[in-house]
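Checklist before submission:
- one chain only
- standard amino acids only
- sequence pasted in full

Submission:
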Amino acid sequence: MTLSDLSLKEYLAEQCRRIDAELDRLVPVESEPPETIHKAMRYSLFAGGKRIRPILCLEAGLTVAGRDVEGIFLAACPLEMIHTYSLIHDDLPALDNDDLRRGRPTSHVVFGEAMAILAGDALLTYAFDVLGRTGNARLVVELASASGTVGGMIAGQVHDIEGEQQAPTAELLERIHRAKTGALLKCSLRMGAIHSGASEEQLAAISAYGERIGLAFQIVDDILDVTQTSEQLGKTAGKDAAQQKITFPAVYGLTRSQEMAEEQRREAHAALEMFGERARRLHELADLIVDRNS
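Returned file contents:
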């Protein structure tokens, strides 16, 4: 039985298993000195994440090439390392100050602030160690740009922090979330496509899809923070409002935010037209992102 024969639930479970096996192989074991940092890295990395970013990378590559391309896990796994580093740092007292992530205590609660900072730093650094093994400098530039300060993840985090002191506006909201969440999601798809030899036309289509699902992902995240409990989310619910974050419900209201997520879903589907049936899983992943409840 191939991946294409599996139900979406089975497919996601199998992709998570494959990604986790590669991450386990790539990341130093807990007994490797200095033991504490490797325990802290692994504690957050294997905390039960959905692996959406590496899955998008793998699936973009498959959509472009029609098959698994050799070495693509070396492109996919660094995305999860970068994402996990960002979560560790986001949860620190100096930023979002959260003590719950993926249903269990955050890194700084377990290991202390200093070790949590270093665990995030280590995952960031190691991501580029692994990505460099692909031998493709373009992938390194893609990931560094999407993680950085010019339209990337860190830029979005800065806008988010500074936005707590500002009136919520549509312009600021878009600036925050296209960078903070959207950049890395779009990058995940682009990296898979680039690694698999995408043409410019194919890369443009994959990028357009990534733009749409990146925005949809954040809209839904903001909605869930309002509508779900901490137990359902696996993290503290209602924190956006408590910290006066600029969110889609705060700017547009809940109903309009839900409509916007649907609009992004439709445009994401439309962007994949050129790939036909090869893009089936990407279509399913767009639906999953909008329909999820955690």
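Reviewer check: Residues 3-291 form a domain with the Farnesyl Diphosphate Synthase fold (CATH 1.10.600.10).
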